[in-house]
Amino acid sequence: MPEALYPVIPQDITVHLGAPTSSAQNVTVNFVDYIKNVASSEIYPTWPEEALRANIYAIISFALNRIYTEWYPSRGYNFDITNSTAFDQAFVPDREIFENISLIVDDIFNDYVIRQGEIQPLFTQFCNGTTSRCDGLSQWGSVDLARAGLTPYQILQNYYGQNIGIVENAPIADIEQSYPGVPLRVGDSGNNVKIIQTELNRIARNYPAIPRIAEENGIFGLDTEAAVRKFQEIFNLSQTGEVDKSTWYRIKRYYVGVKGLAELVGEGVTISEAQIPFSTQLREGSQGIGVRTVQYYLNILAYFNSGLASPPLDGIFGPETTNAVRVFQSFYGLPVTGIVNTATWNVLNRIYSETVEFLPEGYSGEFAKLYPGYLLSEGMSGQNVRDLQSYLSLIGQNIDVIPQIPVTGYFGSQTREAVTAFQNAFGINPTGAVGAVTWNTIAEQYDFFIGNN
Predict the structure, then answer these.
(1) Which of 215, 113, 91, 106 is nearest to 159 (CA)?
(2) What is the pTM of this model?
(3) Pairing between strand 172-173 and 9-10?
(4) Which end of the chain is less congested by CB atoms within 10 angstroms, N or C?
(5) Per residue in 94-121, pLDDT tens?
C-alpha cells in the first residue's frame, strides 16, 4: 500500500502579532512554548484538570489546522497564525506561564483532534461561552462539564461530535512551506505532482470547467497541464500550464475552501486521498530506482561541483551514498542527516534542473546529453524527444530486441514501445516513460555504440 502524508508537529510556529492585514511584527517561537503561552492566555489555571486538558487539545488542534491547511501562506502571508482572537487565538509575548498548564502541555503537545476516518487536525473552533458564543467548544461550558464528571475526551465529544478521535504521539519535524521550490511542469513526477492532481480533481467538482485528470499517479502529463491551464484561466493567473508558487498556493487555497478543511464541519481528508506513490524517505539500506535516481543526480552535480561527492550508481543506499547525501545537505544548508526526505529531494531536484538548464548548447558533442530533468512520456514533443529517438534508433541498429523508430520529435506509440523494449532488455521497470535511470542507461548504450563506430 502506498504511503500517506500525515500531519506532523512542527518544531516552531510563526505568529503575526496583530490582525492578518496589519503591519505588526512576526515572531517565530517553539511550538510547545506557543501552546503554553496561548493556554495561559486563554484559560484559567484554577479550572479542573479535565477542562484544562480539553481546552489545550482544542488549542493544539486549532494551531495545527492553520499549519496543515497553510491558511495564511496560501493567501500570500509569511506567517502561520495570528494572535488576534478575532481570527485565531491569543498569544502574549513574554507572558507568565502557569506551572500546571505547562505540565499538561508537555504531556499532550503532540496529540490532536481529528474526525474518525480523516487525517487533518480538526478546526477546533472555541470561544469563552459568555461574552462570545460559537459552534465549537465553550471554554466556561467545559468547566461545568468537567465538574459534572466528564473526561477531557467526553468534553470534546460534547462540542465536536461523537465521531472525533485523538491522534497521540504524532511525530515532530521541521516544517517548511509546501511549495517545492521550482515550478512543476509536463514531465515532472513525484509526490508534489500527486498532491496537485488530487487537489485539482476535487476543485473540479465545484468548477466543472476544469478537465478531470484521469490518473492521480504523480506524473505530470498533458491532462494535468490542461487542468492547470484551465484553473489558471478561471482564477486569473498567467496561463502557463506550469504550477509556479502563485498557482501552487492558489490551488491549495481553493482546495481547502471546497473541502471545508478550515471549518468545524467539512469533508476532511481521508487516508486514501492522502496516499502518495513515492517514498518520502530514502536512507541507508534502501534500494531501487529511487536510489539510483538520487545517485545519478549526485554524480552529475559532483562532476560540475568539486565540493560534492559521487556515490556509486548501483541502486543501493550504502555508506558512500549516505556520505554523498550528507555532503550535499551540508553544502546547501540542509539538516545533515544522510537521509533523502522531501526537503532534500526538492533541493536536489531543483539544483540538478538548474544545472542542466544552463549547460551550453552542444556541450555533449557527439555523445548523449544529460537527462533533461523531467520525465518523457507519450504525447510529449520537442528536442529532448527527438534526441531520445535518435539514441534509441542507433541502439536499435545494434540490438535486435530494440525496434528502430523514426526521429520525429513526437513521443508516440512507437517510441513508447521502443522504450518499453529497452527497459525490459536492461532490467528496468517497463513503464514506457523515460526517467533519469532509463535516460542514463540509454545514454550509456548510445555512447558505447558511438564510441565503437
Answers:
(1) 113
(2) 0.80
(3) parallel
(4) N
(5) 999 999 999 999 999 999 999 999 999 9
